[in-house]
Amino acid sequence: MNKHLYPKFESINIELEQLNINLKRMVIAEHPILYAAAEQLFSAGGKRIRPTIILIIAKLISRTGKISAEQKRLAEITEIIHTASLVHDDIIDNCETRRGTETIHNVFSNKIAVLAGDFLFAQSSWYLANLNNSNVVKIISKVITDFAEGEVKQSIKSFDYKISIEDYIEKSFYKTASLIACSCKATTMLNSNNKETQNNFYLYGKHIGLAFQIIDDILDIIGSTKILGKPAGSDIKNGNLTAPLIFALEEKPELKILINNEFNNQDNINEVIKIIKNTKGIQKAKDLAKEHIQVAIHTMYTRYSKKNIRDLLLVSYYILDRIY
């Protein structure tokens, strides 16, 4: 698969088109600046991987092959929550661009960006409550607290070369995998009371989410600004020690000196990237991502045939193929 080619999901194409229309309708705000900020976020596009996964699962588990209105709304809510988290992330990490366009705090101000993120979280909560399913409300609401937990864990470990892979995976779960895992589970909760089905899709989402984050962190080192839509090396600059760097530290302990100095200039960041590329750090991170992809796929194979989960497999392969 071409790494630049996002797979087409014909089975949910109509639903995805409607989702893009609905997202803009759902974030209409009375104040023009708040509306402008929200509109810019969704106009910037994105692959919509999270709602895509939700819609694929909804169709897979449906006896009639139809996706319910509640599941479609959940897909929209998930994307709004994800977008809100990006707004706050960009402020914390001081990112200048996102998806190739200027970040909200760059266009407006930090204050407006914080309010825009809060507004999106509030909107998602309102639509979530209107699903009238208390169990779904509980599981998705926890995701928002997980975001905060992940940010705190990341901040505590900033520029800490003693961080372990276990610490990194835990932080990655809170920041990325929790939303995907809980959304996958919530999708099944809107269709079935079968606990085994719910837990299987939770595991699928969890491992897909972890793989996605690991691949993102690899791309931050080997990718270009054009591909990433934001400056490469952002994690290193902000002291977020990710899988490739953690693995590289096992081979090159001299990296500790650069980490202790907090990469105080661009030359240091370039040096760290060069050192990482000359170790097995990137390959070990790739292997770790593959392991999580394999666990996710195996979870599906226990219940469904390869033909039935074709679209979920395409998502899995796309996530992995981004680094090739």
TrEMBL record:
Entry's EC annotation: 2.5.1.1
Gene Ontology terms: biological process: isoprenoid biosynthetic process; quinone biosynthetic process
GO molecular function, one term: dimethylallyltranstransferase activity
Bilayer-spanning residue ranges: none
Tree of life domain: Eukaryota
Pfam families, sorted: polyprenyl_synt
PROSITE patterns: POLYPRENYL_SYNTHASE_1 (PS00723), POLYPRENYL_SYNTHASE_2 (PS00444)
Keywords: Chloroplast, Isoprene biosynthesis, Magnesium, Metal-binding, Plastid, Transferase
InterPro entries: Isoprenoid_synthase_dom_sf, Polyprenyl_synt, Polyprenyl_synt_CS
Names of the cofactor(s): Mg(2+)
Family that this chain belongs to: Belongs to the FPP/GGPP synthase family.
Protein name: Prenyl transferase
Source organism of this protein record: Chondria tumulosa
Taxonomic placement: Eukaryota, Rhodophyta, Florideophyceae, Rhodymeniophycidae, Ceramiales
Name of the gene encoding the protein in the UniProt record: preA
